Amino acid sequence: MKSYIKLTVAVIALIAVIFTGANFILNNAGKGDEGRPYRVEAQRIAVKIENGDDYSLSDYPTITNVEKLTDGFKSGDSDYLVKDIGGTLYRFDYSYNSDNSTAVRLFNISFGVVAAFVLVLMAVLFIRIIRPFEKISDYPTELAKGNLTAPLKESKDNYFGRFLWGLDLLREKLESQKSAELELQKQNKTMVLSLSHDIKTPLGVIELYAKALEKGLYKDEQKKLEVARNINGKCEEIRGYVDGIVKASSGDFLNLEVHNGEFYLSALISQIKAFYTDKLNLLKIDFSIESFSDCILSGDLERCVEVLQNIIENAVKYGNGKEISIAFSREDDCQLVHIRNSGCTLSENELPHIFDSFWRGSNTGSNSGSGLGLYICRTLMRKMNGDIFAEIDGGDMIVTAVFTIA
């Protein structure tokens, strides 16, 4: 805001300087000798008269008459000047209009229109863009602080309509994720408390049986066998609770939404090509996409883009940085997209685990990550009735996404 105000003041000052300077130059034009050509022409004629040469007034546009002043000065309406040529006075009548008022007026009108346009344009920019943007400049900071309750006011113009809509959509998404996280924490605490209570009962029974056996309260072998069976039953009960915990923790905790529809394969590949051509070129990675036959696929286009982006990002991160290529094939009613990167250092026995959640291979090194990228890819592909698999071929990693043809 302050920078724009300074810019506006500088523009106004520049307009004032140009206006003043131009008017000064135009108003003073013609006041020096170089601006009075009749003096030059009169001097040239005087030289010819003094040398006895002939001359023609048609060659001197500003001089209208030349005559000797033998009987004193003559009056007249025309402008003139007098020169002494060889002891004789000559009168030079001239016609020259040095008035620049018309030029000054035209300049002032033209410059005024341009200056007014510039100032109006800057005012419109301030009212329609700078000031509204200033009002929302703190909104991302508020989102980062966790202030997700206040919705963003809609703008009456279309300059920031999509931008404001996107910010408010981001706020709603963050608010939804925060609510889901709080609900998950609540459920986890409830589950822990419930399981703690439920496990205490069989543990108490096992403890009582153990103490009874320790003290030798059961003399009958049949009774001891019955107690052993009861202990085993309670252990199975506890194992069931533990299995429940494992199942709950391995569920779809990411809550990935998919909106299945139909889209062209070319629409998917064009987005990938537009995003990665320049990026991989800057990284000096040879990126190629083989030709393919276009077809209509079933699924969520945005999620499919996300899947291929995750695969390529992994190829950039864990490959040797030399080559990434995309190839295509068809099997039955499925379109296969193969993403190959050179320099695979993953061992064969680790390959079956790369789609597990939170799993990271031995080739990760110092690269940061959560171990969720390929797990998310598999989850999304299966929600779109597709699949994903990987293989190692001659030192290259090939990840294949399987899409259903509509």
UniProtKB/TrEMBL annotation:
Which CDD domains does the UniProt entry name for this protein?
HATPase, HisKA
* TM region positions: 7-26, 106-127
The Histidine kinase domain, residue ranges? 194-406
Q: What is its EC number?
A: 2.7.13.3
Q: Could you tell me the membrane topology recorded for this protein? A: Multi-pass membrane protein
Catalyses which reaction(s): ATP + protein L-histidine = ADP + protein N-phospho-L-histidine
Where in or outside the cell it occurs: the entry states: Cell membrane
Q: What class of enzyme is it?
A: transferase
Q: Which keywords fit this entry according to its UniProt record?
A: ATP-binding, Cell membrane, Kinase, Membrane, Nucleotide-binding, Phosphoprotein, Transferase, Transmembrane, Transmembrane helix, Two-component regulatory system
Instruction: Quote the Pfam families the UniProt record gives.
Output: HATPase_c
| Family annotation (SUPFAM superfamilies) | ATPase domain of HSP90 chaperone/DNA topoisomerase II/histidine kinase (SSF55874), Homodimeric domain of signal transducing histidine kinase (SSF47384)
Tell me a Gene Ontology molecular-function term this record carries. ATP binding
Q: Does the keyword Transferase apply?
A: yes
In Swiss-Prot or TrEMBL terms, this protein is called: histidine kinase
